[in-house]
Amino acid sequence: MLKLYYARPSVYARPVWLALIEKQLSFELAPVDLSGKQFEPEFLAVNPFGHVPVLEDGDLRVIESMAILDYLEARYSDIALLPRDATALARVRMVQMLTLNELLPGVFKLLIDNERSDRKSAEIEYAQLRVRNTLSFLENLLGDGCYFAGEQFTLAEIVAGTVVHRVPDLGVALADYPRLSHWSKQLLARPAWQQIALSAEEWNTFKRRMRVIPKIWQRRRHQRMTALSQQSLTM
Predict the structure, then answer these.
(1) Which of 49, 57, 142, 196 is exposed most, by the fewest CB atoms within 10 A?
(2) Are 103 and 161 in contact (CB under 8 A)?
(3) By C-alpha distance, which of 97, 169, 105 is closest to 137?
């Protein structure tokens, strides 16, 4: 059976979780505590980079959410989440990559620093600009279609949809993007989205943890580098 190492709030794990549900696959969930336990030896043996998601399918282990989504699409294609048309496929890939490379970095910056009064700086302004610029592009790309690939629900919805509906929590009004706002509401009404919905408490806990994870990672990295240096000295 498929096994997904995940954390409920993770914006990287949630698209894989959604894809498994939308594809109507049987799978086992293995929760990972993101309060720092992902850097413990037990999980580092599963993923040496210390992050979720990780998918196991028999003897195969796949890390990185985009790689996992591509694997699921190629391996379990009965319910397709990618279009065959070249133009539609390009649109889906654009949405996926823009979400990862433009929207998420801005969202993470706002998530970590936006409530700190001493950091109302050019960095925050740039993060807000980055988020708004991506939302504007997605708004225009979506146009009057139901989905980014037209009538087909795809990975574009699964990847972008897990992030877009959270931007109002970070001070960016989704009402400024009426097509995206309607699209997002329709996604949240789907059974799969409702099945994995976060409570307000879960979301607030995740935001608090996100603000300390960089410090945890730096400490763990320093510890690992120190251990490696000591090993090299004894060789």
Answers:
(1) 49
(2) no
(3) 97
Spatial distance between the Cα atoms of 137 and 43, rounded to a whole number of angstroms: 38
Q: Is the pLDDT of residue 36 over 70?
A: yes
Between CA 39 and CA 11 the distance in angstroms is: 18
Predicted local distance difference test score (pLDDT) of residue 70 = 98
Q: Is the dihedral of CA 87, 88, 90, 91 positive or negative?
A: positive
Which residues have C-beta within 8 Å of that of residue 222, sequence separation ≥ 6?
A: none
DSSP state of 49: T
Domains present along the chain, CATH in parentheses: 1-81 (3.40.30.10), 86-193 (1.20.1050.10)
Q: CB atoms < 10 A from the CB of 98, how many?
A: 20
- pLDDT cut 70: percent of the chain above it: 86
**pLDDT at position 217:** 53
Encode pLDDT of 203-224 as tens digits.
888 777 776 655 555 555 555 5
- Burial of 102 per CB tally in 10 Å (0-12, 13-18, 19+): middle
Residues in the chain: 235
- Would you give the end-to-end CA distance of the chain in angstroms? 42
